[in-house]
């Protein structure tokens, strides 16, 4: 049942993203036609180090999937779609964590290095890239910030067995590359 629920949650998120991709009128690189992103306001604890420039800002909608481990809820994986300012799906976010462009296939993996707690929602975080692939929007990404978070918090109740639950969340993801 645990695997079936995980597959169902992930499939639902990916199906929604795929449908959005096929229905959008995106042609070429979505980020290439957008003007340079505006600076984002962030807590000092998750500020990106000097020497990096903001290259993309995308809204995310999805679920944080939790699994029952020893009677407590533990994060299993995120599953979200990222959209540009016109509402076009431009990327998928999943376990790794990894972000994969639905426009050009580029990808970035990262690991959290700092967080800023927020009451009633998942924390805002600073992630550092551990690997990138491709030549598109996520090529050479050095840092990612998860900002403006809502929802996504694990249930406060106890759990039993191998239960899983998906909790809706939204966030803004800001991507940075080394300044040249």
Q: Mean pLDDT, rounded to whole units?
A: 85
What fraction, in percent, of the residue positions are helical? 10-25%
The total of beta strands comes to 8
SS field, number of helical segments:
2
Order of helices and strands: HHEEEEEEEE
Largest sheet: 8 strands, antiparallel, barrel
Spatially, the strands of the biggest sheet line up as 1-2-3-4-5-6-7-8
Relative strand content: over 45%
Low-confidence stretches: 6-33
The chain-level structural class is: mainly beta
Globally, the shape reads globular
Distance between the termini: 50 Å
Radius of gyration: 16 Å
Structurally, the number of domains stands at: 1
Walk me through this protein's architecture.
By secondary structure, the chain is mainly beta. It has one domain. It contains two helices and eight strands; from the N terminus they run ααββββββββ. β5 (107-118) and β6 (121-133) form a beta hairpin. Mean pLDDT is 85; it is low at 6-33.
Notable traits:
mainly beta
Question: TL;DR?
Answer:
This protein has 180 residues and is mostly beta strands.
Which helices and strands appear, and what pairs or packs with what?
Elements: H1 2-23, H2 30-33, E1 52-69, E2 72-83, E3 89-94, E4 98-101, E5 107-118, E6 121-133, E7 143-151, E8 164-178
